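Quick one: structure for this chain?
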Amino acid sequence: MAKMDKFKGLVSGIADQKKSEDNQIKSSLVIKEELRTLIPPLTSEEYNQLQENIRTEGCRDALVVWKNGKEHILVDGHNRYKICTENKIDFRIELKEFRSIDHAKDWMVSNQLGKRNLTEEAKSYLRGKQYESEKRQVGGTGKNQYTSSEELKTGDANVKSTRTREKLAEEHKVSPKTIERDEKYAESIDKLTGDDSGLKWKILNKEINLPKKTIEEVVAQGDDAVKDARDSLTKTGTLRPAPGKKATQQKAKPESSTNADTDKLIKEIVAELKLAAQEKNHQAFESALAKMNSLKQKIFKTP
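Got it. Here's what it folds into:
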């Protein structure tokens, strides 16, 4: 009996110590804006529903935290953290190891792409950000989990980028060319919106209809054009025409927007079917099939 009491005392002591450590971490969590703004914001309806669920049932899922040196950085669960702290509701944490902030971003992107209903624009942006960060990991350390020893010997950055691009294409069931275009789109979105994550997600969630080509054209015109475009989008949700030119971007009419989206989707399907036929690329074929299903939904208004 004495041994059992001693054992229970040890277990209780360990549990108390763990609870104390967790409470210290929870009271000093660090919010990194570059991580918080990487995830799609909830709509008001979604946020209110989540808040009601947490108030009723508590916070069921643990928040993911990265211990980086002396800092404890919140990686997943920003909305839950806000709701819990505002309503004084306790929550659990799960410590997760990451090699770097880019590695943490990779995990966040994969997590979001796997569990959220996203627009095609948002998917493209997140895939592009993942490709950006994984290329930086190659450049920063000389290797990542997709780099072979032979590539390390040759130091061929192009080969490494190609391998990473092909790996991500397979993971997301798109073509390597799509991943390359995703990176360009992500860069253009970031340049256009700057630090305004609200504007960024309005574009990516199609609250503001702005074709990829238009975004890239604006960015190509330089910093002044980007600033003017950002100001106009923030104030009116549209792009002002340049002096002496007719407006090229107005508030989209539903039908014209639909036609443009449909034409773009058809071109992507044809391009990926050609790639599949020419290179026997299974991923490109699967991507084309998925987009054909999206095309069917657009044309016939099926759910």
